[in-house]
Amino acid sequence: MTEIENSSSILIVDDNTLNLDLLSKILTKSNFQIVTAVDGIDAIEKVAFYQPELILLDIMMPRLNGFETCRQLKQNPLTRDIPIIFMTALADTENKVKGFNLGASDYVTKPFQKKELLARIKSHLQLFNLGSKLKNQNNLLQKQVIDKYEAELQLLEANEQLETANSTLKAEIENRKLIEIELQQEIGERRQITKELKKTLEEKELLLKEIHHRVKNNLFIVSSLLDLQTDHIDSPTVIKMLDNSQNRIMSMALIHEQLYGDTSLSRINFEQYITDLTDKLNSSYLTKEINFYIDVEEIYFNIETATPCGLIVNELVTNSAEHAFKKRSEGNIWLSAKKDSLGTITLIVKDDGIGFTDSKVFYESESLGMNLIFTLVEQIEGKLELKGDRGTEVKITFSELDYQNRM
Length: 407
Fold this sequence. Notes:
Among the domains are: about 5-135, Response regulator (Rossmann fold, 3-Layer(aba) Sandwich), CATH 3.40.50.2300; about 265-400, Histidine kinase-like ATPase, C-terminal domain (Heat Shock Protein 90, 2-Layer Sandwich). The chain contains 11 helices and 12 strands. The protein has helices spanning about 5, 15-30, 40-50, 65-75, 95-100, 115-230, 235-260, 270-285, 305-325, 360-365, 370-380, and strands spanning about 10-15, 35, 55-60, 85-90, 105-110, 265-270, 290-295, 300, 330-340, 345-350, 385, 390-400. The strands form 3 sheets. It has a 5-stranded parallel beta sheet with strand order 2-1-3-4-5, with helices on both faces. Strand 3, helix 4 and strand 4 (about 85-90) form a beta-alpha-beta unit. It is flat.
């Protein structure tokens, strides 16, 4: 066989699995690509999907026999050119004539001879390939004729347009000279406008940096004033409230500090922010030795999302440090933030503290910190989940909200 025939695909349709296995082995050894079907309905579905180059079709099958299968395939413009060889024990002339009238290419009578079968398959594949080549050549020739005709029409139209264009060419050349002079003037004006816009943009960026710098400084000043105020207060409860307020102010100040040092002035690197926040908390505010384990992807938030997220992390971390390790002097806190392909962000804060047995203690708490967490989660349209069997784990899922661009 030729190289093309050896790579040809053949669909074998037979409800007898022994026949299917035997034919598949014979044809596979001859380097054909084999697809099998157990009845006519299965065959029609697989022909549409695999587009075989030849079909070996049994006649006596359940659901849909070979004659009806052949009729439907030959009525379909997409499959009617595929050669069909009937395989059957019905050797009478009437059935053969019926098959040929339906469009079959040949008959193989069971039990068949291997060499005869391969010879018939080879012959019909060669005819099919030659027919396909001839059809393609005819289509190509027709296309070339049409293309040539269209090209001649276009050439005639182009000649007419050229004659019309020649009559106005001189006037257009003069007009273009005038346009070129005007364009040079406009280019000069645009360069000046671009220069002024660039200067304005630089001034705006500088102003935004200065605003973020001053906001950060003012927040740190407020935090320092709260720190000074604690020196004149004896109540531990009030001191703790002032410390918590300092933490919240510090978490907001870090956002403006990062914006001041970033060139975009609009996006927060949440990974860097979480690292800076935990460092500040651990070194300045937390009363216990906390080991932080941070696993945060490189996610960027706008300021409207970063601020509530930072406050949520601050509240959860300080809450764990204050309540999760009551009988210990140190503890471990894990912080994780991941973003999936749909843009959904999962933020997890987990500790190995005492945990809780009743989630109502968490959800029904009247403390300012817990109320603040619920409010902030609602603000970012997130969902909060809680586990408390082994330490405490708080998982918040949300998507960054869209806000109008400032620049």
